[in-house]
Write the structure tokens for this entry.
Amino acid sequence: LFCTAASHILPKERQVLMTTLRPVSESDAAFWFSLDTHTTPQSFRRKVDGRLGFLICENGVPVGLLHYCPLWDHLPFLNLICLLPPYQRKGIGKKAMELWEREMKTLGYAMTLTSTQVDEDAQFFYRRLQYRDCGILVLNDCPLSQPAELFLCKTL
């Protein structure tokens, strides 16, 4: 049984919220695709079947998502964490990451990996969560040209 939860208080509202992760299901497709515009229907199905995608919920209401893939069959790589704008910068993403990391440790993984473009602010979020820089990928003059991709890792 996958059961992860964490409660926290939003300072401004002084309202106790319960952050939970739950595996994504087929019935979550509309919500999923409203936040993740890069996932294809086939890829979504793999997230459902492989338990690689999760909804981030506050008091049972979906407010975001995250998904990962096992890299080299033994390293969970976080592909995406995304929250609806009203739920950003309230500690919910941090709680979701803590829950995901705890689940990865329970599954026997020793570390996690993620990445972000060097021109995005996500690198600061991950560093606050004790992720450390561990590499960079430069894709120039190719069909996937983009700013450099910064890789970050965390020992669990």
